[in-house]
C-alpha cells in the first residue's frame, strides 16, 4: 500500500510538471538510493525497478550467502541459516535477492522521500527554466501584469513563469494595470538562491533594435543593418542604419511613407522621438547627421582624443543641443565623440555682442545657466528669440524672461 501511494504521488508530479519519463525515473531512483544509503550505509547492492506509468515499484537487495557466524557486513552478506529461511536450497557463495518494502524504511524515511522528491523536482524545474530563459536573453517577450509594486512590476507568461520588470527598466510614461499585456526584452536571468529571477526591460537599446527587426522586413531579412542604437527612454532615440544594397534607402525604408513603419514603434515606446540616420565611416559626415536637425557650418575633429568642435550659426545652436541637451548627448553616444558646440566665428563678427556672464551683477547665475542649456550664451542670441518659445524651452517664467530682455536691450543700446 505504501509503495502504491508513493508512486501515485510521483505520477501527480509527472502530470503537473510535464517531466519526461526518463527524467522522472532518474529523479525517483536518485531519491530512493539516497534513502537506502541512510538506512543501510550503501546502495551498491540494491536494484531499483520503477514504472511510474503503471504506478509500481520494486526494490531488491542482493546479498551473498556466508557460513553462520561469518557475517561481517549485514547489508551485503546473509548467513546460511537466514538465507535458507527464504529458500531451503541456498548454499554458501550464492546470491540472495530479497525484496525490500518501503515500510521497512520507516514512516519518517518515507516522508523524507517525498520531501526529497519535491526538492529534486523544483531543482529540475528551476534548472530547465534558467536554461530556457538564458537562451532568450536579448529577445522580445510578452507577459501579463500580475502585480504592480512601487519598485517593480511582476509579470506572468502563458506557462505561469514569473518575471520582474524593475522601475528603472520601465519607460517613465509606462502605466500598467493588472491583466495588461506587456512587451519587453529578456535582459537577464539571475539565480536567487536556487530560483531563477527573470529580468524584463523596456528601456534597453536592444528592445528598440528588436522592435525594428519585428516591424521592418528589410531589417529582419538583413538587407538593412542596424549599426548602433542610443536612447533616453521615453524621450528620444537615435538609430544608425546602413545597407549593403545601394538600391535601398535604409532611412526611408525604416521610417516608411509619412512615418507609417516607425509609427508603431514610437507608440510602443510611449511616443519616444526616434531619429533614423544613415551610418557612414566618414566621421565628420556622421557627426553632422547625428546632430540633425541642426545645420552645421564646420567641424574640427581630434580623432586621437575622440573630441570634435562643431561650429554653427547662433540660431542653430539650440537645435544642435536639443531640449535639455538630449540631442547633443545622444549624438555623442552614437558617434563615440565628445562634442563641443561652438558659435561660428563668422557669425560672431556680424555685430557687437556681449556674453551673458557679463551680466551676472544684474541677472542671477541660475537664470544665465538656463539660457546656456539651450545654447544661448550672448545678449543678441537671447534677444533674437521669441518669448513664448523661450518659456517652453526653459524653466523660466515669462516675467523673468521679459526682465532679462529689458536688461540686455538697455546694455546694447548704451
From TrEMBL:
Boundaries of every Transcription factor NusA first KH domain copy: 202-279
A GO cellular-component term linked to this record: cytosol
Residue stretches making up the NusA-like second KH domain: 284-343
Keyword annotations: Cytoplasm, RNA-binding, Transcription, Transcription antitermination, Transcription regulation, Transcription termination
GO biological process, alphabetically ordered: DNA-templated transcription termination; transcription antitermination
Coiled coil ranges: none
Example of a GO MF term: RNA binding
Pfam families: KH_NusA_1st (PF13184), KH_NusA_2nd (PF26594), NusA_N (PF08529)
InterPro entries according to UniProt: KH_dom-like_a/b (IPR015946), KH_NusA_2nd (IPR058582), KH_sf_prok-type (IPR009019), NA-bd_OB-fold (IPR012340), NusA_N_sf (IPR036555), TF_NusA (IPR010213), TF_NusA_bacterial (IPR030842), TF_NusA_KH_1st (IPR025249)
SUPFAM superfamilies: Nucleic acid-binding proteins, Prokaryotic type KH domain (KH-domain type II), Transcription factor NusA, N-terminal domain
Primary subcellular site in the record, as a coarse category: cytoplasm
The UniProt record lists the keyword Transcription regulation: yes
Domain spans labelled Transcription factor NusA N-terminal: 6-125
Subcellular location: Cytoplasm
Family: Belongs to the NusA family.
General function of this protein: Participates in both transcription termination and antitermination.
Subunit structure comment from the entry: Monomer. Binds directly to the core enzyme of the DNA-dependent RNA polymerase and to nascent RNA.
Family annotation (NCBIfam families): NusA
Name of the protein described by the UniProt record: Transcription termination/antitermination protein NusA
Gene designation: nusA
Amino acid at each position: 500500500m505504501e509503495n502504491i501511494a508513493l508512486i501515485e504521488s510521483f505520477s501527480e508530479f509527472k502530470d503537473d510538471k510535464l517531466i519526461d519519463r526518463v527524467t522522472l525515473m532518474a529523479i525517483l531512483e536518485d531519491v530512493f538510493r539516497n534513502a537506502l544509503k541512510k538506512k543501510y550505509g550503501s546502495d551498491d547492492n540494491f536494484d531499483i525497478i520503477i514504472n511510474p506509468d503503471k504506478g509500481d515499484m520494486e526494490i531488491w537487495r542482493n546479498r551473498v550467502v556466508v557460513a553462520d557466524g561469518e557475517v561481517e557486513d549485514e547489508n551485503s552478506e546473509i548467513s546460511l541459516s537466514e538465507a535458507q529461511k527464504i529458500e531451503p536450497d541456498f548454499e554458501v557463495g550464492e546470491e540472495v535477492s530479497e525484496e525490500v518494502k518501503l515500510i521497512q524504511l520507516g514512516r519518517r524515511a518515507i516522508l523524507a522521500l517525498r520531501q526529497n522528491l519535491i526538492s529534486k523536482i523544483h531543482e529540475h524545474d528551476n534548472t530547465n527554466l534558467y536554461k530556457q530563459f538564458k537562451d532568450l536573453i536579448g529577445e522580445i517577450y510578452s507577459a501579463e501584469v500580475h502585480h504592480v509594486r512601487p519598485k517593480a512590476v511582476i509579470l506572468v507568461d502563458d506557462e505561469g513563469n514569473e518575471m520582474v520588470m524593475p522601475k528603472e527598466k520601465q519607460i517613465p510614461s509606462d502605466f500598467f494595470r493588472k491583466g495588461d499585456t506587456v512587451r519587453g526584452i529578456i535582459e537577464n536571468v539571475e539565480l536567487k538562491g536556487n530560483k531563477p529571477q527573470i529580468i524584463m526591460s523596456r528601456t534597453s537599446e536592444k528592445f528598440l533594435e528588436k522592435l525594428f527587426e519585428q516591424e521592418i522586413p528589410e531589417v529582419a531579412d538583413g538587407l538593412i543593418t542596424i549599426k548602433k542604437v542610443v536612447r533616453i527612454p521615453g524621450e528620444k532615440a537615435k538609430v544608425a542604419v546602413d545597407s549593403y544594397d545601394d538600391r535601398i534607402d535604409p532611412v526611408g525604408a525604416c521610417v516608411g511613407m509619412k512615418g507609417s513603419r516607425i509609427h508603431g514603434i514610437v507608440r510602443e515606446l510611449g511616443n519616444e522621438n526616434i531619429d533614423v540616420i544613415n551610418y557612414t565611416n566618414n566621421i565628420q559626415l556622421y557627426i553632422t547627421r547625428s546632430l540633425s536637425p541642426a545645420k552645421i557650418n564646420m567641424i574640427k575633429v581630434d580623432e586621437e582624443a575622440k573630441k570634435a568642435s562643431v561650429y554653427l550659426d547662433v540660431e542653430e545652436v539650440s537645435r544642435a543641443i536639443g531640449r535639455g541637451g538630449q540631442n547633443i548627448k545622444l549624438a555623442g553616444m552614437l558617434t563615440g565623440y565628445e562634442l563641443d558646440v561652438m558659435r561660428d566665428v563668422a557669425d560672431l563678427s556680424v555685430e557687437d555682442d556681449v556674453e551673458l556672464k557679463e551680466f551676472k551683477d544684474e541677472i542671477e547665475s541660475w537664470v544665465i545657466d538656463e539660457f546656456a542649456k539651450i545654447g544661448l550664451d550672448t545678449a543678441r542670441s537671447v534677444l533674437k528669440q521669441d518669448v513664448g518659445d523661450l518659456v517652453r524651452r526653459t524653466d523660466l517664467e515669462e516675467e523673468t524672461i521679459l526682465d532679462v530682455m529689458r536688461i540686455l536691450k538697455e546694455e546694447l543700446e548704451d
